[in-house]
Amino acid sequence: MRTIIGGKRVKAKGRRSHAACGPEHAHRTGISGITAIKKSEAMEQGYGFRISSEGREIYPGTIERPHTHVRVQLNRWMSKKTRKATGALALHATVMHGIGFVVASALKEDLDINDKQMAEALGTSESTFLRWRKGQKDLDEIASDRLVRYARIVEMATEVFEDKHSAQSWLKRPQVGLGDRIPLDMMKSEVGAREVENLLMRIEHGVLA
To answer: Which one of 16, 24, 49, 131 has the lowest number of neighbouring Cβ atoms within 10 Å?
Structure first.
């Protein structure tokens, strides 16, 4: 079973409960009749808290573990750096402060790409990328913004194809639905990224394979 959350389809599985999640918590989160867990717990464990493309905060009861390493690391980084902010504000603050290199490493692993390709994805040079890695430095604002964009789509692709390797392959190959362009190349711009997301949504609904 899949549920539409924040404009995206997510599988309703792997529910977890928490002692503090009574009717009052359900009312505060806008959730009625389903299990919910605390935001702090969800973020610390690396699942249940997501930022949709609309920037909405999500931590309802139909919880599932993220499909990607980058989502886990990004959730954990946000939980440490933006304890008071939520939703779009948390994501904005995270980007402006700079995302840790550990998150970039997780994205590189999820995509299975080399250093040069990862640097291009983040909009920087390979030498700069290697300096960030050597010093385990936080990314700058531009690279952080692009990382969030890539993380969003990689998670979506992995969910749609229900397999990490299938998602990797799809993202690296020319797609008819994109005019024979490669999704990873399209994702270098926000406009192109939206086209990739739209195509993934059509695939999910069986409109175009």
So the answer is: 24
Q: What is the pLDDT along the chain (209 residues), one digit of tens a residue?
A: 444 333 444 444 433 333 333 333 333 333 333 234 344 444 444 443 444 444 444 443 334 555 688 888 888 888 777 666 567 788 888 899 999 999 999 999 999 999 999 999 999 999 999 999 999 999 999 999 999 999 999 999 999 998 889 999 999 999 999 999 999 999 999 999 999 999 999 998 887 65
Q: Which residues contact 209 (CB under 8 A, 6 or more apart)?
A: 203
Contact 188, 179 (CB under 8 A): no
Tell me if 138 sits within 8 A of 98, measured CB to CB: yes
Neighbour-count burial of 9, counting CB atoms closer than 10 A to its CB (0-12 exposed, 13-18 middle, 19+ buried): middle
Which residue in 20, 24, 63, 27 sits closest to 43, CA to CA? 63
Of residues 64, 172, 62, 162, the one with CA closest to residue 121 = 172
How many Å apart are CA 53 and CA 75, to the nearest integer? 15
Which residues 6+ apart lie within 8 Å of 119 measured at CB? 125, 126, 128, 129
Residue of 133, 127, 80 whose CA lies nearest to 105: 133
Give the Cβ contact number of residue 11 at 10 Å: 13
